[in-house]
Design goal:
The chain is mainly alpha-helical and 383 residues long. Helix content is 59%, strand content 5%.
């Protein structure tokens, strides 16, 4: 504590610096014994004599308190405070008499040190985040293991990329809600006392958590990327992991915002899905961006999943060659008629007068066609 206020019988017994309280009582004849807690000494030996066994001892203790009350009321410090309150006009006490808070740099330094120590002490949380990142990376990797380049792989590839986008957002958002919810009470109490500013708190917290918000997404993204069998190109892997890191930090910011809006963690956990689900629905996977009703179209621009899914898709499908397995080829007139063993055309039983055509058409032969079907061939580019 920096400042100390002691009351007895509804009156001020001491008000001033906590560090100066021990010398103050020592000058009055009540020194604090060596190796004794000053707080215990003040409360148990000065204000309340726990060793007083008789009425005379208790009366002497009460007289001591009255003596200390009278001494403080006649002290220069008490007169100074009384003069300041009497001079207070409509604007309150003169700000020059109020001890100012620490400067912004000091606030950042102290808060950063405290948050850093808390992060180091909570090693179990670090291990849990590491395990979570490895598990989710392995999970999506095993589900979509070794994606091929046939037509069926397009749906699997889209699902894997969108799953990564949603999973990173949800993990980061709900992780912050569960962690910052209990800490919010401490923050509000300390901030209301003027100990530090809101900007200093959140900036220091962000700087401490930034290594976690970079390392763990990179681990999860790297495991998923190579297990999925996405394009084995270094710059595409770098873009993918960079997008995962940005998405994780966006989810962290979104979780912090939601937590700050609502008063307690129970309400926050109940309301958070109402924020996230619409953003997920308009992320470009469940409904094509060009098919969203005009009265809801504006919602997609607030969806971090939309931008991340588009970035992942453009990064993956650009330069990707696709093919069709024999069973995936479709029949078209441009393929020519199908011939039997005698090199005769085969009549089409379902369309009298027409013949059966060969199956040679492949719907998607490169990634650009897939991007066009997703309405992602324009509006977002990766240099």
């Amino acid at each position: 504590f920096d400042n100390l206020l002691l009351l007895a019988h509804g009156q001020v017994l001491y008000q001033g610096s906590a560090a100066e309280s021990v010398p103050y009582f020592s000058e009055l004849g009540y020194p604090c014994p060596r190796y004794t807690n000053p707080a215990d000494h003040i409360f148990m030996r000065i204000l309340n004599d726990t060793e007083a066994m008789t009425e005379d001892d208790r009366a002497a203790a009460a007289g001591r308190v009255q003596k200390l009350l009278h001494h403080y009321s006649a002290s220069p410090r008490a007169r100074e405070i009384a003069e300041q309150t009497q001079r207070a006009g409509p604007g309150g006490v003169d700000v020059s008499s109020v001890v100012s808070t620490a400067n912004f740099l000091t606030q950042i330094t102290v808060l950063f040190g405290r948050a850093g120590r808390n992060a180091i002490r909570n090693r179990l949380i670090v291990r849990a985040k590491m395990g979570q990142s490895c598990f989710m990376g392995l999970l999506v990797g095993l589900i979509y293991l070794g994606l091929k380049t046939n037509q069926q792989s397009i749906q699997d590839r889209n699902g894997a990329l969108f799953f990564v986008a949603v999973n990173m957002t949800m993990m980061a958002t709900f992780g912050v809600i569960s962690a910052f919810g209990p800490e919010r009470l401490v923050f509000e109490r300390e901030r209301s006392h003027g100990m530090y500013s809101t900007l200093a708190y959140f900036l220091s917290k962000m700087l401490v958590e930034l290594p976690h918000n970079i390392i763990f997404p990179v681990i999860q993204g790297t495991i998923a990327y190579w297990m999925l069998g996405l394009q084995a190109v270094a710059d595409k892997w770098a873009i993918f992991t960079f997008g995962v890191v940005l998405l994780n930090n966006t989810g962290t910011a979104m979780g912090t915002m939601i937590t700050c809006i609502f008063p307690n963690i129970e309400v926050t956990l109940a309301i958070a899905p109402l924020f996230i689900m619409p953003l997920m629905l308009f992320g470009g996977f469940f409904i094509n961006s060009n098919a969203i009703p005009i009265y809801l179209d504006w919602l997609k621009y607030f969806s971090p999943m939309k931008y991340s899914f588009a970035a992942f898709a453009i990064n993956e499908y650009t330069g990707l060659a696709l093919h069709c397995d024999p069973s995936e080829l479709t029949r078209k007139a441009t393929c020519g008629p199908q011939l039997d063993a005698n090199n005769h055309t085969i009549p089409d039983p379902s369309h009298p007068g027409q013949v059966v055509y060969r199956a040679c058409y492949c719907a998607n032969v490169d990634g650009q066609q897939v991007l066009k079907s997703l309405s992602m061939d324009s509006g977002l580019t990766l240099a």
